[in-house]
Protein 1
Amino acid sequence: MTAARAGRPGARRRLLPQLIVDVGAPIALFYVLRGLGASTFAALLAGAVLPVATAGVYWLRDRRLEGVAAFMAVVMLLGLAVSLISGGTRFMLARDGWVTAAAGLCFLGSIRARRPLAYLGARPLLEGRFRSDGTPWETLWADEPAFRRIWRISTAIWGIALLADAIARIVISYTLPVDVVPGLGGLLWPVTMVLLQLVNGVYYRAAGLWRMTSGYGRQPAGAEAEAVPSAASTETSASTETSASTETSASAATAKRRYK
């Protein structure tokens, strides 16, 4: 799966081409098999097997699936399982809709988890590489409530968008001609992803995410602790000055009485 390689140097440059392959190859396979005379069900089943096989190749090569890569592997296996359920051609066409709905619910369910899914997906891609002063994201997560809130809201945005995408897929699967649905469903992916990137990008900037990761607007560690002794020192100095002034006034008064 594409996300399995996201954490390695150069993976971001290969992300878009690999996404095109992951989305486009099953659709192309469907239309090739249909052109060769395969049934709609058989062509759809072959398209469901291909992404799982691709993810298996990536896992054998990297020997690990992290974060959203593991999540997407589970989603693809779920898609294959749904494909094997006897529900007719229309049900098979709606497979991506059902699986996308499950993914959206997983995002929404992770909002209050220890680490939400949007954070787990973005960290391998962006941590230390994009507008960063080198501070680990786990440190920001522990120290900055605003940082945690941004990723929980972003996860909610992802969940809602995936559920909307799922509804659209299920509707077109049961209403449009059978051979039109796979191609249209493939076109829906980039539309959803581009809109998600735009909405999240605007939100990240407005919420100050990149200022935090760049080190701006964050209180340096220990600054609060240093401020307390400083305040105490100021109060002590003021108290000392007041006491000295009082003693000086008393001494002057005593000397005046003696003079008289």
Protein 2
Amino acid sequence: MADREAVGLRHEDWAVADRELSVVPRLNANDARTKSATSRTIPVSAELIRLYADYMHIEYGDLDSDYAFVSLWAAPQGHAMTYAAVHDLVRRLRRKTGIDYDPHWHRHAYATRLLRGGTPVEVVSKLLGHVSLTTTTETYGHLTAEDARRTLGRRLVRRHGGAAVIEPALASQCQEHAGFPGRSCRTLAAMRSRSTSVPERRAGPVPVRSRAAGRRPRGRRRR
């Protein structure tokens, strides 16, 4: 979720029981806007739900507002927090802690973690609210070849009838994010297939067959 979307969240957008958060395009008093003109639902963690509950109980208190994030202390108190107010808060925190930080980094870190974990780029694009899949691939095409290799090693190849088959969605992700040609992916699948089909040898001494043991018993000569 973008920071401009976060300041436009309403209490009704939080589905606490389902651990979901809805991003709804609407007119907001603080000019907050969404990334796309269509609504989307984002799964959230139980920890985030607990943090939201603590925020409402400890800090939000008796303030009366439809917006989830409001001005708690500065005037006008209880009004929806603006985008400029968020960045002013971030600037003060950076000055106080000495840590270089930007709220938009959370969005980049979230997308990168999903892609490195093997989430299809189509799913990541929907969660981010991108209108076009190209926007996702161009923005988050900074994944290294090593990241792609780790993803491929875990999820690219599936077994089907004793043969290794490349998943189409994952092969597409490989080509788009790492610049790997399809032939390289197929080669990796073939190598993976050979490595899994050969049984592992057990360590230990190799039995040596003696010459005497290898001879066939001679039959008795006829007289």
Protein 3
Amino acid sequence: MSVSGITGRTLVVLSAAAIGLTASAAMAQNASATIYRDTSFRGPAVAVESANPNLRLNFPVYSIRIARGDWELCSQPNFRGTCITVLQSTSDLRRAHNWAGPLQSMRPVTYSPPPGGGGGSGQQSLRGMASEYFPAPRQANRPNSARVQACPGGNATSACASQNADRFCRSVGWNGSAYERMETVNRRIYLADVLCVRSGY
């Protein structure tokens, strides 16, 4: 694609991808977990310290001990299939998350900015000149407040999530959201990976 053929929307998506790669690199440096075949942290174990799109495990996983970070576990390679987000060490994934067992990819999902870094909103974020990336938007503009639900009080749809992402971005000083995802944590659906911008949303 020529430079002249790149639209504003394309530039926004490219910016989101670049920010995502930067955040992923930071997460990889601050995450560590060990997965176990059996419940109660028993059986064969594998230590994981960064995103792994293909674990090639020949056994199911039913417990995880987390040293640092929050982790997304997926039943298929490349972070597909059934995915759950685990926020703390869990001795029985089947009971806590209704996890079926097969695990083929996993990655850290929380970005912790370095001291003094992040955006001006008081939340975990990565801020640039024309946009700000929020991996896990939180309510009331405080780092320890509850996460923003994708569609509170209704079915989680992409249109609803987009509207709430726009509303969130406006609450932290931007004009709207150019990119957002939905993440399921403990059977609740939250906004994730929100890219707030001035224009092009």
Protein 4
Amino acid sequence: MLSRADIFDGRIRSRQHWGFLRYSGDLMTAGVSLARADLKPRIASYSFPNFLRHMSATVASRATLKSLLSKIGKKVHTPSIHAESFLPVIAYMHAQEPERISGFYGLEEKETEFLEKFLPKGVGVKKPEKKKEEKTEEAKAEKKHEEKKEENAEGKKEEKKEEKKTEATKKEEPPKKQPHARHSKLSEFF
């Protein structure tokens, strides 16, 4: 329809017959909309941008990664962008000695969990002992310590009793005369 309207515009210019203008205008406006084969109007579907949805869903993991990389970068003396290449190695070392690596890099619990994602396949993480076991071990150690205290207290009581007995025997015996310092050598001869 637009091409037919363009033909009428060309005739208007060449013949200077402005009566064709009403045909040209009708063909450009209503003619185009009526020329569609399917008359069902399409409704544009609007939705939230997928990029922003993805970025908002991963904000926590990205923050954890950023803090992890900055801590590694400070210890390895590289920018945090380049510290990402060290993640598999540090993850492997953390799997072998978790307490040592966490202490050295100052890693938090979230960061250590995030670090496990970078482990090579087939490598297991040594889990620290459960707190219940630690508590029972601490309780056992405390019991042993209390028993030792009681034994020491009983031993001290017995020592005091023995000291009193020895003091009592000392009081009963008369003191022995000590030879004078000058005469001590002479007493060997006599």
